[in-house]
């Protein structure tokens, strides 16, 4: 009896202990400069992952910080917060459960499953989906190999072309530039499915695809994305090896030639916003840049899909200066945000990147704008931080429909403007 009682107490205590030490996400709002300094120290000296903001340099007074704290750092971090009387709340108590929910394998044949697009998919699944989409739509879908990643994984772009009209313009959409933002590749798949399923059924989709070809890169950062499925769900960068440091990876969205490596990026390889050795030093960013350079006369719209924070952003992020057509881009983003609000009762902020968030040089949207693609946007999808990078699969449908609403709004506006220019003498 005594042995059983001892065993029961041990199990009870062990269970209680384990609930205290799950990986968690904390929400912390520093109210003094001392708090800011402590948080900067915590996020660099301990094994944690900053979700918001992306880098310690952006931590400031009275601005919310979202910090992923793994089990083995939990006690140390919370003790430090308590010691300096920094209040915090637990946003996510057990991230492991959410990750398990996201990666749960469903073996249903995707061709007969309506839920295929309401799940997250491994890189291998996405490559298989690309092959199947090509096989099922040989007349309207082409697959273009534009290059390969650092670890030699292919970078496949799908071209949707529904007719052979001469002098057709095009739209570019890339997803998954940051590895941990899983809702982003999910959107690229969602967009392709909607385009192919609703052409000639939905008026907006039909008008867009009658007037434009669409290039879609579902996973711009395949090495990083693969790594988030197998090793570290919070990984952001690519997986290239530095010649000057033991730290791995470059932030591909700081690696383009737009005020490269100025304020808002870092030349330190161990940071999350490392800009790389030089502009387009990474094979992934170079492949995208080369493709867009060779198609700049036809590509009118550039869209890069990210998460999280619910924002519709446009250039510049690399400078506080306003672009030439700032007002035009602002009106488009505003209308897209209003449509999301109207149909989905959800709020998206909008504006130029630098003024809406912070300076972020070397971004793909600024580079595309400077190339001559004057309708250039970055979308930050759901949510505002309740789940952050661990958005549950049950939220995929709504998040993607919101983004699709914004894409359609902007594309239809660009088509209108293009037709107006052709008509005017």
Which helices and strands, and how do they pair?
Elements: H1 2-20, E1 24-28, H2 33-45, E2 49-52, E3 65-69, H3 71-83, E4 88-92, H4 95-103, H5 123-136, E5 141-148, E6 154-160, E7 169-175, H6 183-198, H7 203-211, E8 212-217, H8 222-230, H9 283-294, E9 299-307, E10 311-314, H10 326-344, E11 349-352, H11 353-356, H12 364-371, E12 375-381, H13 396-423
Helix pairs in contact: 6-13, 7-13, 10-13
Family: Belongs to the peptidase M14 family.
Active site: 380 (proton donor/acceptor)
Protein name: Peptidase M14 domain-containing protein
Protein described:
The chain is of the alpha/beta class and 425 residues long. The protein folds into two domains: 22-93, Alpha-Beta Plaits (2-Layer Sandwich), CATH 3.30.70.340; 108-423, Zn peptidases (Aminopeptidase, 3-Layer(aba) Sandwich). Helices cover 41% and strands 17% of the residues. The strands form two sheets. An eight-stranded mixed sheet has the order 5-6-8-7-9-12-10-11, with helices on both faces. It has a four-stranded antiparallel sheet with strand order 2-3-1-4. α10 (326-344) links the parallel β10 (311-314) and β11. α7 packs across α13 (396-423) and α10 (326-344) crosses α13 (396-423). The longest helix has 28 residues, at 396-423. The chain is globular, with a radius of gyration of 22 Å. Residues 1-19 have low confidence and may be disordered.
């Amino acid at each position: 009896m005594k042995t059983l009682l001892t065993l029961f107490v041990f199990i009870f205590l062990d269970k209680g202990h384990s609930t205290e030490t799950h990986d968690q996400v904390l929400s912390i709002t520093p109210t003094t400069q001392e708090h800011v300094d402590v948080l900067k120290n915590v996020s660099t000296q301990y094994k944690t992952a900053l979700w918001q903001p992306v880098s310690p340099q952006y931590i400031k007074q009275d601005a919310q910080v979202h910090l992923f704290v793994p089990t083995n750092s939990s006690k140390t971090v919370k003790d430090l917060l308590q010691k300096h009387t920094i209040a915090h709340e637990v946003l996510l108590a057990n991230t492991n459960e959410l990750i398990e929910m996201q990666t749960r394998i469903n073996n249903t044949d995707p061709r007969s499953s309506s839920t295929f697009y309401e799940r997250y998919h491994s890189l291998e699944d996405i490559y298989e989906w690309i092959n199947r989409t090509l096989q099922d739509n040989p007349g309207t879908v082409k697959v273009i190999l534009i290059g390969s990643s650092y670890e030699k994984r292919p970078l496949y772009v799908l071209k949707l072309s529904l007719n052979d009209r001469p002098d057709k313009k095009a739209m570019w959409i890339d997803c998954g530039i940051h590895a941990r933002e899983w809702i982003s590749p999910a959107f690229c798949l969602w967009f392709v499915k909607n385009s192919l399923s609703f052409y000639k059924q939905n008026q907006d989709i039909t008008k867009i695809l009658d007037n434009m070809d669409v290039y879609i890169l579902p996973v711009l950062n395949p090495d990083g994305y693969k790594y988030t499925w197998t090793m570290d769900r919070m990984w952001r960068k690519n997986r290239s090896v530095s010649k000057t440091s033991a730290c791995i990876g470059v932030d591909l969205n700081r690696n383009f030639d737009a005020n490269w490596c100025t304020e808002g990026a870092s030349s330190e390889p161990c940071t999350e916003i490392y800009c790389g050795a030089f502009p387009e030093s990474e094979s992934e960013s170079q492949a995208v840049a080369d493709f867009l350079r060779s198609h700049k006369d036809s590509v009118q719209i550039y869209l890069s899909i990210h998460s999280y924070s619910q924002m519709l952003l446009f250039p510049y992020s690399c400078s506080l200066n306003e672009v030439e057509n700032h007002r035009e881009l602002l009106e488009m983003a505003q209308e897209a945000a209003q449509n999301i609000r109207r149909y989905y009762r959800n709020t998206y902020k909008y504006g130029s990147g630098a003024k809406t968030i912070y300076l972020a040089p070397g971004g793909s949207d600024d580079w595309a704008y400077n190339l001559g693609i004057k309708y250039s946007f970055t979308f930050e999808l759901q949510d505002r931080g309740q789940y952050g990078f661990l958005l549950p699969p049950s939220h995929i449908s709504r998040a993607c429909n919101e983004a699709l609403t914004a894409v359609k709004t902007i594309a239809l506006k660009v088509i209108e403007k293009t037709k107006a220019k052709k008509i005017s003498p």
